Amino acid sequence: MTSPAPATGALSETATGPVVEVRTLRKSYPGPRGAGRKVAVEDVSFSVAPGEIFGILGPNGAGKTTTVECLAGLRTADAGQVRILGTDPQQHPEAIKDVVGVQLQEAELSPRITVREAMRLFASFYEDPADPDELLALLDLVAQRDVRFSRLSGGQKQRLSIALALVGRPRVAILDELTTGLDPAARRATWDLIERVRDSGVTILLVTHFMDEAERLCDRLVIIDHGRVVAEGTPAELIEQVDAERTVVLRLAAEDVTRAVAALDGLPEVSGVAAAGRRVEVTGSRRVLFAVVQALAAHDVVPDDVATTARTLEDVFVHHTGRPYEEPAADAITKGARS
Ligand SMILES: Nc1ncnc2c1ncn2[C@@H]1O[C@H](COP(=O)(O)OP(=O)(O)OP(=O)(O)O)[C@@H](O)[C@H]1O
């Protein structure tokens, strides 16, 4: 592993070097009632290339938010290095402020402020802000321009928080738990939007609990568990590396079920066959689908339907941690107050 270049105050303008670098980051918090320290981030390293949507995926309390808070200069790391465009956010917070847009969890605005006023307020923090009207158009908030924050829907609040994160024309946007609490249609609309933002030239660091979100959106990602990176790569690479069992689900004519089960049971590629009515579930190795089709053909059984279950990032998590991934319900994530 190479070490990042020493931090400079000057932001790197190179298009090819990493936009974000995190090396052996460690961060702990004081324990409750003075009881030792709680390690939130034990050992996290990754780097993000220009124009990527890079995901930080992990269960509750894995250390995701702490990691991006160190990157955004909101927390001081105990050890390790973080760089944004070659600059240390701790040493040069002013330089970082102009290139990083942060949308952290629970962005709270005054309930009475309108969308237009919030945009103006945030634009006033920058010398050369983006055009608020263009951003509102990008984020589909033009019709809500004069609506007060308290009257916006969950999806509209999320979209406003992204608009506010982008108003300083950042090169990097940090988006934390973006789709928590949104209904499925609003989540999908937000995913499309994130791709549009990336296409406009912004590198995106996306913090998420949601496996499907990471799989759908991220070019590359790290999976974090208990403050450590357990896997890193593209979603396809990570899934490909896991040699999980495959499942083939058959729907057969009632009179074919017994014959099919007898034909499939005992094949070297098959580890299990379970029949329930006309449905037969077959598990086995990578070649199980091939073996099932061949065996059925040899016994002249023509299934009404054949489906395979795809492996997902969930299988990747189980493979690396040895336990199931407990994804909270989209609307069930709450955060305690942070110090
Ligand atoms: N300010 C704080 N003081 C004490 N402990 C904290 C603080 N912030 C976070 N922690 C603890 O550090 C650990 C990592 O928290 P962090 O919020 O970084 O994880 P996360 O992966 O973002 O989790 P979540 O998805 O729930 O936000 C958790 O055990 C959390 O309780």
TrEMBL record:
PROSITE patterns according to UniProt: ABC_TRANSPORTER_1, ABC_TRANSPORTER_2
Main location: membrane
Membrane topology listed for this record: Peripheral membrane protein
Keywords linked to the UniProt accession: Antibiotic resistance, ATP-binding, Cell membrane, Membrane, Nucleotide-binding, Translocase, Transport
UniProt GO MF annotations: ATP binding; ATP hydrolysis activity
Cellular component terms per the entry's GO annotation: plasma membrane
GO biological process: response to antibiotic
SMART domains documented for this protein: AAA
Cell membrane is among the record's keywords: yes
Cell compartments where the protein resides: Cell membrane
Protein name: ABC transporter ATP-binding protein
Species name: Antribacter soli
Lineage: Bacteria, Bacillati, Actinomycetota, Actinomycetes, Micrococcales
